[in-house]
Amino acid sequence: MADTARTSVTLADGRELIYFDDVPGLDRTARDPRALPKSEPRPEIRFDPVSGEHIVIAAHRQTRTFLPTADAAARAACPLCPGHADSEVPADGYHVAIFENRFPSLGGPAGGRCEVVCFTDDHDATFAGLPSGRLATVARAFADRTRELGARPGVEEVFIFENRGAEIGATLSHPHGQIYAFPYLTPRTRQVLANDGCVFCEVVKREADGERVIAETANFVAFVPYAARWPYQAQIVPREHVPDVAALGEDEAVELMGLYADVLGRFGRLFDKDVPYMAGWHQAPPAVARDRAHLWVEVYTPQRTADKLKYLASVETGTGAFLNDVRPEDAAERLRTA
Fold first, then answer.
1. Inter-CA distances, 277 with 117, 162, 175, Å
2. Is the CB of residue 257 less than 8 Å from the CB of residue 264?
3. Residues in Cβ contact with 338 at an 8 Å cutoff, skipping those fewer than 6 apart
């Protein structure tokens, strides 16, 4: 069945922009007025024989937009705000907009694709504060992109993520996330698939009624992992085996999105300040090992106290051995009551 609240258009440089609307029938034919050269990304993927991992080299990203000022007069510098000549979204307003990244880490000869997901046209909104109708639209958009990108030749993994806060490197403050369609399996996914059977099916059974649970719904549970790497970290996992967002029913997808927003709100209330966070939607590869890869969402922050950040210094960065300053059970208690 066609999605009548989904409209695909082409930007001035040939990149795709897709509008996902809360309701059907909206006019999304506004033309991109910019004079942009054709988009021809040239990232490279190199293999490191020491770590056995792929490394992306994307030198062209040095010129991407970086932290435009936040005052109202300077909003025209934000490429995700609509209604100005330099916007990536030519419509006067939008609900959810997804477009090919102008400064992608993947694509071209390297393969794969990078997309930007704008959750709202309101520059000052937060994901945690989105209304239920918008959460349903985001869920529909995530499922659409998981299916479409996963069906592309050469795509081995679809990873949805969100970075919020300059402390962890977010270069724009407008509420947005990104989607990477990788032409290889990432190290974290390969580690999960190295287990016999589905490790998260066992993890969720162990954690579902434990002291580290922070929030739950009928079909999903959010908890601080037993061996958390970050001061405040949560995993949101379906109680039953589900490989990816596209495999969820519509009601389940909305339920999961609501719990995700709930967890983000709890992180935001940890301290009397905006809390930076990273979030990732880990999904099964589109074509292999779907019985061993469980959908799971992870949220974590480097904020270990109101005025201190956790940095990945020599030990963590050099060896991959994480050191956590906060007991996971204590973190769970704070998030549960936040």
1. 17, 8, 12
2. no
3. 265, 266, 267, 269, 270
The whole-model pTM stands at 0.95
How many other CB atoms are found less than 10 A from the CB of residue 28?
A: 18
* Cβ atoms < 10 Å from Cβ of 95: 21
> Among positive and negative, which fits the CA dihedral 240, 244, 246, 250?
positive
Polymer length in residues for the chain: 338
- pLDDT, tens digit, 9 for 90 and up, residues 227-260: 999 999 999 999 999 999 999 999 999 999 999 9
- Non-local (6+) Cβ contacts of 337 within 8 A are none
Mean of the per-residue pLDDT values for the chain?
A: 94
Residue 198: how many other CB atoms lie within 10 Å: 20
The DSSP-derived string for 131-177 is -HHHHHHHHHHHHHHHHHHHTSTT--EEEEEEEESGGGT-S--SSEE
Backbone angles phi, psi at 175, to 5 degrees: -60, 115
| Residues β-bridged to residue 16 | 10
C-alpha separations of 51 from 47, 54, 156 in Å: 9, 9, 20
| Positions marked active-site | 176
The residues pairing with 300 across neighbouring beta strands, listed in sequence order, are 233, 278
pLDDT at position 71 over 60: no
Distances (CA, A) of 136 to 202, 205, 321: 29, 27, 38
Give the separation between CA 11 and CA 34, rounded to whole angstroms. 9
How does pLDDT run across 131-171, given as a tens digit for each residue? Answer: 999 999 999 999 999 999 999 999 999 999 999 998 988 88
Quote the CA–CA distance of 19 and 99 in Å, as a whole number: 9
CA distance 275 to 164: 8
- Calpha distance 155→328 (Å, rounded): 35
Could you tell me where the DSSP H helices lie in the chain? 132-150, 187-193, 199-207, 250-268, 314-319, 328-337
Q: Report, as an integer, the average pLDDT of 79-103.
A: 94
Beta bridge partners of 115: 100, 179
